[in-house]
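It is worth pausing here to work through a concrete case rather than discussing structure prediction in the abstract. The textbook approach is simple: state the sequence, then state the predicted structure, then interpret. We follow exactly that order.
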Amino acid sequence: MYRLITLLLLAGCAATTPAEGFRYPGKQIYSNAVLENARLAGRWVQVAEFATADAAQCKLGGAELTQTPTGLTLAARLCLNGTSTSFSGPLRASGPGRFSPPKGEPWWVVWADVGYRTLVIGTPSGRFGFILNRDGGLPEDRLRAAREVLEWNGYNLAMLRY
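Step two, the predicted structure:
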C-alpha cells in the first residue's frame, strides 16, 4: 500500500511534456498588457519557430504590419512547425496584446522589448509560436529574454529552432 502511494506521488512530480503543440498543458500564458499596437507597424523578420523533430525544414519568413484608420493589416509568410503559412488581411485587436489574424487561432504578443525591435508571439493552445525581429540579426540579450518569456509561458524550448 505504501509503495503504491509513493509511486503515485513520484509520478505526480515527474516532468510533463506538451500533449499537443509546444506548450505544457495547464500552464498559464500571458499577453503583453501594455502593448502599443501602432508601434507594431513595419517590417518584421522571423528569426525562430517552434517545430517538431520531424517537421520539414522551412525558410523562415517575415511579416509586414501596416497601420490603417481601423487598425493593423497583416501581410506575412511564416514558418509554423515547418510549414510555410501565408496571412493577408486585418489583424484585429481582441484585447491587450491579443490579436485575431486573418485566419487561424488567436496570436498573443507575450513579449515586446521596450524599443519594439523584437516580438514573441504565442497561442493559448500552444500549437505554434515564433519570434520576430525588426531585422535578421537578433542580439544575444534579446534572444535570451525571448527564450525566458517563452519558457515562463510554458513553451518547451527544446522545440524552438532558428
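Step three, interpretation. The chain has one domain: 21-161. The mean pLDDT is 89.
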